[in-house]
Structure to design on (203 residues):
């Protein structure tokens, strides 16, 4: 089917592919069971994810996010890397009535700047970094009370914040991705974003 024909299908809305630029604002390594991450200036990516990060690996156990699988069953790991937007973290903070939310409090591996409505970047979007590293976006990252508890722990006088976090951060918690091509990501560098052609299928 030709490109022109695709855009004339009755009832189907098709959005052309998009290219954008973003900047790496912060990097983090999430070790152990605690949700928080340690800030780094450089992050190594392999096909298994980030070495030493708790989300690294080709496989992961099924959890509440994928109820169509038996809990704990080994499935493909499409959640190797957690990515958030500094602009959206500022909105979350405003929603909670606090000064700030730092990306490492949420266990984020990568915080970006310059990409409006970042949490709505669709599945299949790829982030291209100067080293040759490529991340492929798979899904939105849903907010939870555990992340809210970590934010509360880092801010004195914010009792009860954990219970309010999920609502305040809904559709603002960023996305998850897997490593499509290994390489290095450095804090402060610019990267390219390629959003694939999108469409809505109503069935």
């Amino acid at each position: 089917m030709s490109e022109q024909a695709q855009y004339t299908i009755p009832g189907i809305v098709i959005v052309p592919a998009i290219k954008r630029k973003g900047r790496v604002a912060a990097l983090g390594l999430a070790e152990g069971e605690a949700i928080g991450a340690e800030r780094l200036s450089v992050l190594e990516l392999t096909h298994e994810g980030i070495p030493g990060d708790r989300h690294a690996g080709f496989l992961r156990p099924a959890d509440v996010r994928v109820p169509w699988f038996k809990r704990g069953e080994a499935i493909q790991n499409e959640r190797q890397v957690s990515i958030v937007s500094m602009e959206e973290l500022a909105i979350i903070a405003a929603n909670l009535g606090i000064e700030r939310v730092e990306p490492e409090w949420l266990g984020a591996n990568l915080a970006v700047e310059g990409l409006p409505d970042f949490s709505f970047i669709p599945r299949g979007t790829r982030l291209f970094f100067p080293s040759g590293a490529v991340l492929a976006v798979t899904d939105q990252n849903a907010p939870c009370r555990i992340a809210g508890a970590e934010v509360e722990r880092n801010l004195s006088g914010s009792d009860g914040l954990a219970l309010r976090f999920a609502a305040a951060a809904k559709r603002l918690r960023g996305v998850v991705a897997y490593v499509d091509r290994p390489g290095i990501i450095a804090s402060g560098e610019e990267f390219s974003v390629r959003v694939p052609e999108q469409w809505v299928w109503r069935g």
